[in-house]
Amino acid sequence: MTDYFNEMFHAGQVRAPYGRLQDWMAAMPAELRQMKQAEAEELFRRIGITFAVYGEGGDPDRLIPFDMFPRVFTAQEWARLDRGIRQRARALNAFLADVYGRGEIVRAGRIPADLVYKNAAYEKSVAGFVPPKGVYSHIVGIDLVRTGPEDFYVLEDNCRTPSGVSYMLENREIMMRMFPDIFRENRIEPVDRYPDLLRRTLASVAPAKCNRDPNIVILTPGHFNSAYYEHSFLADLMGVELVEGQDLFVEGEFVWMRTTEGPRRVDVIYRRIDDDFIDPLCFRPDSMLGVPGLMDVYRSGGVSICSAPGAGVADDKAVYTYVPEMIRFYLGEEPILQNVPTWQCAKGDDLKYVLENLGELVVKEVHGSGGYGMLVGPKSTRDQIESFRARVAANPGNYIAQPTLALSASPTFVEEGVAPRHVDLRPYCLVGERIELVPGGLTRVALTEGSLVVNSSQGGGVKDTWVLAE
Fold first, then answer.
1. Closest alpha carbon to 434 in 114, 147, 135, 168
2. Secondary structure of the chain in the HEC alphabet?
3. What are the backbone angles phi and psi of residue 89, rounded to the nearest 5°?
4. pTM here?
5. Residue 148 half-sphere exposure, CB side, CA atoms within 13 Å?
6. CB 294 within 8 A of CB 117
7. How many CB atoms within 10 Å of residue 76?
8. What CA–CA distance (Å, rounded) separates 361 from 365?
9. What is the pLDDT of residues 323-342, one digit of tens each?
10. Residues 6+ apart with CB under 8 A from 213
11. Angle value at C-alpha 380, between 60 and 158, nearest 5 degrees
12. Sign of dihedral through CA atoms 120, 121, 123, 124?
């Protein structure tokens, strides 16, 4: 694929936001670049930033490749993204409040009932319950792609526990440590307020029974989880306790944390475990990760769980196709950011088109993540396409399809120098009493030439993301 938008060079000219980086790039000989790259890797390893990929043998803890060439947005570009992300987060939360309440959008025929109420992510156990401040998804990760100077599209929504924010913060920290001069020469909006904003957001949704400074904890599945580094990293930066299920217990109307000084009441749980494992008395009885009785306390207003159990129905890839309609229905506005055109294989005509054009499309499982369970038609072999065709035909409702977009490319340091590589962006929108986000996000980069798959589990890397101040 050669017809794509190059974010640094356009119409033969260096685009304005990258103007000062051209000299920086040209002045970095290969030896210095290799030395700095090794320094960055050593910093990541020393800090302990690893992720786990299971089932592949060998050491499951790896460094995510870090590319030193930053991705840059102007203040004007970011202002539009900021408005669109906030709009989408408001609509998604309004949808969750509605479908766990009266279901007006379903009654109005704007979204099929089966898609919501028969969805595996819909939790009947919380139907009718309104969480504190009416917020269901407290951290919304919106995955964005760019195809032109003014063309941004939402690829998917992450309303449960979007990961990667630790890389956004550490990418910036390491870039500032290695290249202080370019930060003096460029006015770059900071991202280091994120932990304070996250803590303020979580505190703002403490339950009504909390009449004091709320005690916030992060609930992790433990050190074997692929995002454990991030859990401990955020707990440290926010100054809150990192706990596992065994550290908490229910007594009376509240959740308590075991400490060396005796039990301490917990008011807000930022959970980084899936719904199924939160409470073995409500969900999976074999779960050893959750807290027995937690859901009873939650439903009686004794603790807040962020994001709310059941929030995942809003980020299902089939439900995604209806988010523009949610914006119109709940907010009375036109979407600022558009969806990627999507075919729902559960629909007969859509399925026919997808099966006839598999070699040109990207096909995804509606509950898939991490780059797994998907087919990138133009990059697949005939055997892979035929194998996927059988899977889609056997279970159409499990798949959606999208055109193969010409994702924008950002300059990236590669072995031979600098070359364009395809990128996406995940900003993190915090929803509590207020909606807030820092100017930036996690840029993921497909390091393999021509690849469109940016996920770290599939060989992708990360970059620092700059938003230039006005």
1. 135
2. CCCCCECCEECCEECHHHHHHHHHHHCCCHHHHHHHHHHHHHHHHHHCCCEECCCCCCCCEECCCEEEEEEEECHHHHHHHHHHHHHHHHHHHHHHHHHCCCCHHHHCCCCCHHHHHCCCCCCHHHCCCCCHHHCCCCEEEEEEEECCCCCEEEEEEECCCCCCHHHHHHHHHHHHHHCHHHHHHCCECCCCCHHHHHHHHHHHCCCCCCCCCCCEEEECCCCCCCCHHHHHHHHHHHCCEEECHHHEEEECCEEEECCCCCCEEECEEEECCCHHHCCCCCCCCCCCCCCCCHHHHHHCCCCEEECCCCHHHHCCCCHHHHHHHHHHHHHCCCCCCEECCCEECCCHHHHHHHHHCHHHEEEEECCCCCCCCEEEHHHCCHHHHHHHHHHHHHCHHHEEEEECCCCCEEEEEECCEEEEEEEEEECEEEECCCEECCCCCEEEECCCCCCCCCCHHHCCEEEEEEEECC
3. -65, -40
4. 0.92
5. 2
6. no
7. 10
8. 13
9. 999 999 999 999 999 999 99
10. 203
11. 55
12. negative
Q: Going by C-beta distance under 8 Å and a sequence separation of 6 or more, which residues neighbour residue 403?
A: 340, 341, 360, 361, 362
Instruction: Render pLDDT for 7-41 as a digit per residue (tens, 0 to 9).
Output: 999 888 999 999 889 889 888 888 888 899 899 88
Q: Hey, which residues does 139 pair with through a beta bridge?
A: 430
Tell me which residue of 122, 163, 173 sits closest to 141, measured CA to CA: 163
51 contact partners, CB below 8 Å, separation of at least 6: 61, 62, 64, 226, 227, 229, 456, 457
Q: What is the four-CA torsion angle of 121, 87, 428, 422, rounded to 10 degrees? A: 90
| Token reading at 152 | 């941004």
Tell me, what's the pLDDT at 61?
59
* pLDDT above 60 (res 2): no
Tokens of 431: 């929803």
How many other CB atoms are there within 10 angstroms of residue 285's CB atom? Answer: 9
Residue with tokens 């509590």: 432
Nearest to 21 by CA among 410, 426, 382: 410
Is the pLDDT reported for residue 3 higher than 90? Answer: no
Euclidean distance between CA atoms 392 and 348, whole angstroms: 12
Domains of the chain (ranges plus CATH)?
Answer: 9-207+303-337+405-467 (no CATH), 341-403 (3.30.1490.270)
Q: Using one digit for the tens of pLDDT, what is the confidence trace for 243-253?
A: 999 999 999 99
Which residue, chain included where needed, has tokens 């440290």? 236
CB 248 within 8 A of CB 255: yes
